[in-house]
Amino acid sequence: MLRTLRILLLFLAPVAIFAAMVAVDRTFGGPGRGYGYVVRVDLPGDDDLAGLPVVRGPMDASRPLVVIDPGHGGKDPGAGADNLKEKDLVLRLATALRDELLRQGGIRVALTREDDRYLPLPVRPDIARRLKADLFISIHADSTEVGNGASGATVYVLSDKGSNEAAERIARRENAADEVNGIRIAEQSDGVGAILVDLSQREMRALSEAFGGLVVREGDGKLPFRETSVQSAAFAVLKAPDIPSVLVESGYINNTVDRSRLASGEGQRAFATVLASAIRVHFARQSAPPPAFP
Asked: Any idea what the CATH number is for the domain that residue 144 is in?
């Protein structure tokens, strides 16, 4: 019997010592030990990520992000001719541009839609804002009266009228975007908020115009243009206040020459190559150090 007790004590003693050590460590241990080892991190809520498209490309948030928006979709077919709908054509163009950017590497890309779904106009730039995009490109295919000879692409940015209207609207909205260029709009009065948004949009318009100019420059001799300078209009899809944004009318879908070009694989590759080149030059300019002055 005594021998059995000695054997039990032999095995139980280390367990008892270990338990005592754990109890002392939890009671008197320094920071980072015992119960203090738990680190709590606030993760984004489901609402912050719900409905956002997949971002493709490098798994590096420091790399620039381009959001490409194929216009129309779902119940909104856009223009059309010879059974070719604008919504389908621009999705092919957007996909070709995405694939070209991914092929070249170094840039992250997301499409507002990758299938035939309907997205309300305000949702499209909002997707870019929620993803914290560095550039937003909306792709369309124009239409005009048959027989007037209109053809070629046109690049648009937001007009002054559209900018002012958007500034007032965004500043009034309760969820105007918590921040515009790092400034919390919710903490400002409506008047100050509108001014801040308007100033931000003016800066973004300058960047947008510069990028639009690059599209025209890079496309010289490679894409036909209806207008050889950047145009402006109050497109609702361009009203993100803090993201350079352009709308590219890739051509006239009811012009037989434009339609054949844009519907072909060769035409889509040419479109993608030109825009990808402009995108890379744009980001190279943004990352270049400012000039040194004596």
From this structure: 3.40.630.40
